[in-house]
Structure formats: structure tokens, C-alpha cells
Amino acid sequence: MTALISSMGASIEIGLIFAILAMGYMLTYKFLKYYDLSLEGTYPLGAFLAAVLIQKGLGPYLGIIGSIVAGGLGGCLTYFFYKKVKVDPLLSGILTLTILYSINLRVGGASNIPIAGSPSIFGNLPKWPILLILTILIKLAIDYYLRSEAGYLLKITGNNRKLVKQLGKNPDGMIMIGLILSNALIGLSGGLMANYQGFADIQMGTAMIVTGLASIIIGDTIMKASDRLRDTSRAIMGAIVYRIISGLAIYLGLNPNDLKLITALIVIAFIAYNNYLSKRKYKRMVNNARD
């Protein structure tokens, strides 16, 4: 039982780190309808930069700031390919993550940077309260931004670019802001993970797109009919539930090498459940219309 509690505690902590990634990815995937794959490059970039700065003795806090800035620059690069080079959104993300793979190796000088035993943002304190407070602060900041005029424009850009133009704003500018904010948060998530696990590895970004999608899809399924839950709250809850399911699967004896398979199955299961709920709702609406 003690081992199970410890495993679930670690899953929640990692879930909080992934929640920041999910809230970042939510901005592009859910609002802009821009399917950005560059997160698989900006996530490890944030981890590598944080680890390098810590290793050089510049401190974990500067490392976290560096991971945020680096992530935002990664978003700028994706926007440059999309807008200036006229590359398809999916391909622009692929180009960015491919370039960042080499940049990450250049930044770190190796495929793995150990920083265990070095100062971290957690110090000697329990990790979960720090992660919880940070996640809540980021959630509140995003909620505040989305309630502003700029946030409203960002939300409607994915569904109605013509309306944004009619309001005298440039929808491409909203995409640029969304990509920068999204990848800055994703870079922060990578920096936090490096602090949490005590190393940065070049493979950290592999399949992280599925993690982001899983968190958003699971979050959208939770209390689906409720309008009280904000999108940020759903992303946080989805990330935590996703990590608990993954951690529980490994605890019950599944091979850790099958984690990517487990992740894919989780996503498929929740998509199927969402589709089932949608069909049920549609049938109910049809029946009510007939009555």
C-alpha cells in the first residue's frame, strides 16, 4: 500500500508538470485550431537549457527563466516557417522540432545531462506544493488573459478569422502570440521536469504530442456537460488523470517500455467515449425534436 501511495504521489507531481504543458498546447490546438508539433522540440529544449544553466552554476531559477524564453523562441521559429516561408502548419512544426533536436544536442553537448545533486527550484521542500502553486498561478494568469480583449481574439481566431479581420485585427498576429505563449509554457514544463527528475535527455520530447492531446481529450470528457469548468481546469485535471492511469498501469505490472502504447490506448478509449457521448446527445436532441 505504501508503494502504491508513493507511486500515485509521483504520478500527481508529474501530472502537474504535464498540466502546464497541456495548458500551453490548449492555446494552439483548441483555440487556434493550429496543430503544432513543435512541442516535441520545445519541451526538451526547455529541459536542456535549464539543465545546462544549473550545471554551469547559474542557478535553477535562471534555468527556469531560460526554458521559458527558449520555448517562446521555438514558437517564433514555427511561426516564421508558417508565415514567412509559407509552410503548412503541420510541416512547420515538424521542421522546428527537427531543427531543435540538433540545437538541443549543441546546447547540452551530449544526449543526456545529469544534474542530480545540483540545486533545484524545489530545494529540500516537498515537490507537490510548489508544483501545485505554480500550476494554479499559471492557470489564473491564462484565465485572466483569455478574458481580456486579446484573449478573446485569440479564442475566436481558430473558428472565425474573418471576424477577427472585421474587428481590425490581424489573425496571423494572434497565431504568432498563441505559438509563443504555448511553447513558452511547454518550455517551462520541460525545465520543471529536468529539475524534478534530475536530468535532461534528448528523447524527452518523443511522443509528447500524444501526452498533450491525451490531457486535453481526457479533460474535455470530465464533467462534459458542465459549463462551470474552465478549459484550463479541464487541462489540469486531464493531465493528472492521464498520469495516474499511466502510473497505475505500470504499478500493476505492465512493462514501462509499453508506456507509449498505454498512452495511445488511453487516448483512443477517451476519444471513443467522447464520440459515444456525442451520438447519445444527438439522438436525445432528435427524439426531443420529434416529441
TrEMBL record:
Any matching Pfam family: BPD_transp_2
Residue stretches spanning the membrane: 6-27, 60-82, 89-108, 128-146, 175-196, 202-223, 235-253, 259-277
InterPro entries: ABC_transp_permease
Cellular component aspect of the GO annotation: plasma membrane
Subcellular localization: Cell membrane
Keyword vocabulary terms for this entry: Cell membrane, Membrane, Transmembrane, Transmembrane helix
Name of this chain's protein: Branched-chain amino acid ABC transporter, permease protein
Provenance organism: Anaerococcus tetradius
